[in-house]
Design goal:
By secondary structure, the protein is mostly helical. The protein is 66% helix and 4% strand. α4 (72-88) runs antiparallel to α19, α6 (103-126) runs antiparallel to α7 (149-178) and α8 packs antiparallel against α15 (391-416). It is globular. Keywords: Coiled coil, Membrane, Transmembrane, Transmembrane helix. It is found in: Membrane. This is NRT1 PTR FAMILY -like.
């Protein structure tokens, strides 16, 4: 009888997902929790969440300049700082999900926070006394009273509560979806890659509604209606997310990964310092590093090939953390910990190489909209709001994402005889190339737009220029295509290559790259204005009238910087070696990208 009970116990144990629980903190069961059904709830929620966020972010620069009376450059910087902060806070959401809470709980808390921020913005947009006095824009050179004091506090409180909520959602929702698949199997890894592709598809579906219907409402019915729609949308997304609770498998937090990273780094530096003053270190190191990693560490076992069994030769400096010392026993590290820190450090150059791409994407929310606002936006008898320009790349992504997943990927898998076909790093590289081309096109289009303004004598007029906004749409399509290739590639790459203890945090690097890109855009604008202002009476990007700016020069600068960044990326991508199972065969393809 005892043997039968033991067999039943082993069977029940093998039927559970190790390291995962359900929403009631019980063991997650195979066949009941996880899979594409669970991930489908997350994809629907992302449509609603991105609609709520992008409906305001895409048009915010015009709201700040027309109703809060900030200058074009100040409005652009406020928007980029707001969006940058939102995406940077994804790191906080990812860290808390990995270390202390779960992706499930972080999403719910973050959605409620974003809801509160949108309520504040809706109330301010609705009540005239909470905004600065209306300023008729008959003349672009008339200076209006800018929002200040309590009204400004209310504005920025609402904006940054939204940013905090968006950051938490971006840091928890993608890894929550990716965790629904078993990465130990080929089928599970393929489903996870499909999830990331359709996650970008869901982002685009939400964006399509945001930049068409909601933006039209904001421009024609009032911003209080736009904020109200966003508020209702994020509120609806919460019960939809909860409907999938019974199907989710939720990863158990493992404690702060930052502690391990700093311990390994501190131990490496400490032993390096000791080695310069001692001759006995070599014998200590050889003794301590000769052991092998236990098959079961802390009672857990993983069949992934990424589990560390031997010490690698990469980043040899970190191997010093394995040296034994009686003085500092808390610095003692295992081979597994050292190799995990190496994995984190090796993906950082790839992360840094994507920041410039997102700096280019930041222009779509700022200067590109201001360009379109001066042009003819009519299509027949219908007038398209300038903030609806992102509809072009969004539609392109909605069409291309399924084609990429069901046509391009299977074809490339057969052609290359590899698991992924097109590697993660190749996808990111394609995005970087497209960003260089997009900035060159943007500069040429701006030169043409200003030439038309001069020839038409409309440099200081509020009348639309006799040039269609479809010229600006070209840079939207190019950068939208770059975003499709790079964002899905980055999320899949960071999630796959990161150690198990920091997958949410690593996935959040995709959003942190966006944040750094937006911040870099603000820094470049300020730096360009300061430098050009010191050599000229008027900086390149400081006029209230964009016709008097030198935006084309700024775009050429962005093109040059993007080209240099592409070379920097190729240097690191050529040398990167994949660590996870199913990706080792990507090394050859990754090097072929350089030829």
């Amino acid at each position: 009888m005892s043997e039968i009970e033991m067999d039943n116990g082993q069977g029940q144990q093998s039927n559970r997902w190790d390291g995962y629980i359900d929403w009631r903190n019980r063991s997650a069961i195979k066949g009941r929790h996880g899979g594409m059904l669970a991930a489908s709830f997350i994809l629907v929620v992302e449509v609603l969440e991105n609609l709520a966020y992008l409906a305001n972010a895409s048009n915010l620069v015009l709201y700040l300049s027309r109703f809060m009376h900030f200058s074009p450059s100040s409005s652009a910087n406020i928007v980029t700082n707001f969006m940058g902060t939102a995406f940077l806070l994804a790191l906080l959401g990812g860290f808390l999900s990995d270390a202390y809470f779960t992706t499930y709980r972080i999403y719910i808390i973050s959605a409620m926070t974003e809801f509160l921020g949108l309520v504040i913005l809706t109330v301010q947009a609705q009540i005239p006394s909470l905004k600065p006095p209306v300023c008729p824009l008959v003349d672009r050179n008339v200076k209006c009273e800018k929002v200040d004091r309590g009204k400004a506090i209310m504005l920025f409180t609402g904006l940054y509560l939204v940013a905090l909520g968006v950051g938490g959602i971006k840091g928890s929702l993608p890894p929550h979806g990716a965790e629904q698949f078993d990465e130990k199997t080929l089928h599970g890894r393929k489903q996870r890659s499909t999830f990331f592709n359709y996650y970008v598809f869901s982002l685009s579906c939400g964006a399509l509604t945001a930049v068409t219907f909601v933006v039209w409402i904001e421009d024609n019915k009032g911003w209080q209606w736009g904020f109200g729609i966003s508020t209702a949308t994020i509120l609806i997304s919460i019960p939809i997310f909860l409907l999938g609770s019974a199907t989710y498998r939720i990863k158990i937090p493992t404690g702060s990964p930052i502690t391990t990273i700093f311990k390994v780094l501190a131990a490496s530096i400490y032993h390096w310092w000791i080695s310069s003053n001692s001759s006995n270190v070599v014998s200590n190191f050889s003794t301590s590093s000769s052991y092998t990693t236990r098959a079961r560490e802390d009672g857990e076992y993983s069949e992934r090939k990424a589990e560390i069994e031997t010490l690698t030769e990469d980043l040899k400096f970190l191997n010093r953390a394995l040296m034994t010392t009686a003085r500092q026993p808390w610095l003692k590290s295992t081979i597994k910990q050292v190799e995990e820190v190496k994995c984190v450090l090796k993906i950082l150059p790839i992360f840094l190489s994507t920041i410039m791409l997102n700096c280019c994407l930041a222009q779509l929310s700022t200067f590109s909209i201001q360009q379109a606002a001066t042009m003819n936006t009519k299509v027949g008898s219908f007038k398209i709001p300038p903030a609806s320009l992102p509809v072009f790349p969004v539609l392109f992504i909605i069409i291309l994402a399924p084609v990429y997943n069901h046509v391009i990927i299977p074809f490339s898998q057969k052609a290359t005889n590899t698991e992924t076909g097109i590697t993660h790093l190749q996808r990111i590289g394609i995005g970087l190339v497209l960003s260089v081309v997009a900035m060159a096109v943007a500069a040429l289009v701006e030169m043409k737009r200003k030439r038309v303004a001069i020839q038409s004598g409309l440099m200081d007029s509020t009348e639309p220029l006799p040039i269609t906004f479809f010229w600006v749409a070209m840079q939207y399509v190019l950068l939208g295509s770059a975003d499709l290739f790079s964002l899905a590639g980055m999320m899949d790459f960071f999630f796959t290559e990161a150690p198990d203890t920091i997958k949410s945090l690593a996935t959040a690097l995709s959003w942190a790259s966006l944040a750094m890109g937006y911040y870099l855009s603000s820094v470049l604008v300020a730096l360009v204005n300061r430098i050009t202002g010191s050599f000229r009476h008027t900086p390149w990007l400081y006029a209230r009238n964009i016709n008097h700016d030198h935006l084309e020069r700024f775009y050429w600068l962005m093109c040059i910087l993007s080209g240099l960044n592409l070379l920097h990326y190729l240097f690191w991508a050529q040398r990167y070696r994949y660590r996870s199972s199913g990706n080792e065969n990507q090394i050859v393809n990754n090097r072929q990208m350089q030829k």
